[in-house]
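Hey, resending since the last one bounced:
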Amino acid sequence: MELDTRFKKTTLEQWVPVAKGTALEAAEVRYWKAQLKYRFSHEFATACYGCSWRSDGRLVACGDALGGVHVVAATTGTNLRRMSGGGKVAARATAWRADGLAVLSGRDDGDSSLWDVSTGARILGFEHESDVRSVARWSAQTWVTSSYDGIVRVWDERKPQPVARLEHAAPIAALAPDGDVAASAGGTNDVVWDQAQHRTMHTFKD
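The structure tokens again:
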């Protein structure tokens, strides 16, 4: 079934990922939008992780258990490209650059790489001391990553080192930037960060 032409960017968050067994351990990625009855699937050779949509809804990026990053066509389920810097550790997180031409990935070996989706080349890398479990775009050339060492890092593509390090104080499982703020979750803490000042705004404890 082809993508319904009524699909708009504003409804992208309503697409729901599911898979066989659990979302993290499945070897198949499925998406559907209940209102439009649209669905595609793609079979991977290994477990798949950390899927993210490009803003136009045409492409999906996913990591795999061997450190590869796949770009899949949403309308057909075709695997257009697999990008990998070697090694056999899981790539658990992906995020698209604003221009839709590159994908940032995060791996269990502490590597976070920015990939050119047209050529498959590694553009640059951000290094961490432990597993990278969340990556996200914060602005046009700024990224935010989080890892199991309990640190949120803010990166500028034009600089080799993080422009800010924010202490979450527990292994971080999830990260969500939104405009001028970002939230990290891990342990018993949820922390809201100020982007401009690179400081803690609020900490919520369970």
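Confidence is low (pLDDT under 50) at residues 1-38.

Sorry for the duplicate.
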